[in-house]
Amino acid sequence: MSTLITPRQLYECMPKCQEPEVWAPILDERLFEAGIVEPQMIAAFIAQTGHESVNYNILEENLNYSADGLLRIFGKYFRDVSPEKYARQPRKIASRVYANRMGNGPEESGEGWRFRGRGILQVTGRNNYERCSSYIFGDRIVLLDDPDLLLEKDYALMSAIWYWDIHGLKHVQNFVELTRRINGGTHGLEDRQARYNRALKVLTR
Predict the structure, then answer these.
(1) Which DSSP string do the residues of the chain spell out, in sequence order?
(2) pLDDT(35) > 60
(3) pLDDT of 50-109, one tens digit each?
């Protein structure tokens, strides 16, 4: 098997990645298994996942919002309750904003917090954890029982490959469309595009 990406190349793609020597071998193995082998495919994967995880350094969703931040980002969930009662309380925030959707139970179940975003593409919601668990472990229960497994590097990466696979992203050549399929819009497009351009240059020289 030829090497798809070395630690040095990953560092050049993402200079702020704190552990390129740890991530690169895992990335190399898993991308090969997934058939993400062409430089353009690898560059797109690294660009999108690198943006979402802040250079593979953040594997868990940050929900430590102020009251103003809650109104700006999650305003529709605070129309009938004061955001001040939730501000700077990540567990309460997640339990509310992710309640009764994506397979999660009501706010008081705490499932919004339990199944908050994890991994380098932020798998979110009970249903997605169940599907991702089936993909990685061949058992839908594993991640439901221990969602923090997605904070381990290999599983954090495999969860992104699961998302890539089920949405057919390997075959999306238009980078703006790829961003929409991941983000639901084009948030951070400039940074994502810059990451892609840099990664492609590194991988094709």
Answers:
(1) ---S--HHHHHHH-TT-S-HHHHHHHHHHHHHHHT--SHHHHHHHHHHHHHHTTTTT--B------HHHHHHHHGGGGSSS-GGGTTT-HHHHHHHHTTTSTT---GGGTHHHHT--BTTTTB-SHHHHHHHHHHHHS-TTHHHH-GGGGGSHHHHHHHHHHHHHHTTGGG---HHHHHHHHHSS-TTHHHHHHHHHHHHHHHH-
(2) yes
(3) 999 999 999 999 999 999 999 999 999 999 999 999 999 999 999 999 999 999 999 999
Place of tokens 């943006």: 51
The mean pLDDT value of the chain amounts to 96
> What pTM did the predictor assign?
0.93
